[in-house]
Amino acid sequence: MKKILVLATGGTIASTPHQDGLAPGLGINQLARYFEHSQDVLIHFKVLMNKDSTNMQPEDWVTMAQTIDENSNVYDSFIITHGTDTMAYTAAGLSYLLNGLNKTIVITGSQVPVSFKRTDAKKNIKDALTFAQKANLPGVFIVFDGKAILGTRAVKMRTKSYDAFASINYPYIASIDEQNLRISKHPKPEPSPFPNHIGICPNVFLLKVFPGLAPEFFSFLRDHTKGLIIESFGNGGLPFEKRDLATGVARLVQAGIPVIITTQCLEEGQNMALYEVGKRVADAGGITAGDMNTEAIVAKLMWVLSQTNNPETVRKMMQTPIAHDLDYI
């Protein structure tokens, strides 16, 4: 008999109408009613928190990871019910915090509360149960709208439609339809490249570059962050004429602050060596993130900085594939 632990964290799936709008309010016994399952599966439920996922914090990822780690000898799989707004960040965060754990961890939720007459929640719950029971794939996955997505590759694309998430720069893992599971991509098991570590340093900053961004902003960041992620233009370029952001990167790196460079383009990653505007950033010490998505970069940098501040070690850890988050640098 397969044992599954469902961890409830709130989100739209458990929301009910309140005076100020929808907010998590469904009790665990009410939520559990929707987890219909066969007799050869034993399901237990536990409420970890009851939050709109907008209020989800990195410290909450640690709580989830510790709970799963502490129960890993008891249960075969885990399902987390979660709000959609930060679900991709949580999926990425757990992929690093539980790196090396040989269990299937499924995160699901909905765009419409489960108690509403028309809702995607019931299907997502059924699909999450099917995947947790049958997939036998270690790692963290988002199951949503009949698809399974690797935890480090998911991005929320839509605010209303049921197909809220997309898999970026990596194939979908599986499709689920009426308890039929079709696995289309078997992620090859990866040996854990670093010691298991459940810890987070949330003091990072994410900066989206735009035409006209003043380089003086980098002086503020030097005193207020331990790591910076820059969403650059195109292939990793930053302006160096009139408003010289490339020099700003160099000054942060000289101050011992790692600067991770990604792109504002969702697909196909970056190649900082292709143009002068990118090569100058690389020469300044910017660390390319290749084809990683922003959600994974944020979570990974927090996880890395909780273990080391050494610039070269940070570079090595950020550029080492973990949970299939990175195909090239």
TrEMBL record:
Residue ranges constituting the Asparaginase/glutaminase C-terminal domain according to the UniProt record: 203-318
L-asparaginase N-terminal domain: residues covered: 3-187
Entry-linked Pfam families: Asparaginase, Asparaginase_C
Classification via InterPro entries: AsnA_fam (IPR006033), Asp/glu_Ase-like_sf (IPR036152), Asparaginase/glutaminase-like (IPR006034), Asparaginase/glutaminase_AS1 (IPR020827), Asparaginase_C (IPR040919), L-asparaginase_C (IPR027473), L-asparaginase_I (IPR041725), L-asparaginase_N (IPR027474)
Coiled-coil segments on the chain, per record: none
Leading EC class: hydrolase
Keyword annotations: Hydrolase
Active site, per annotation: T12
The keyword DNA-binding appears for this protein: no
Domain of life: Bacteria
Enzyme Commission code: 3.5.1.1
Similarity comment: family membership: Belongs to the asparaginase 1 family.
Record's protein name: asparaginase
Species of origin: Sporolactobacillus mangiferae
Organism lineage: Bacteria, Bacillati, Bacillota, Bacilli, Bacillales
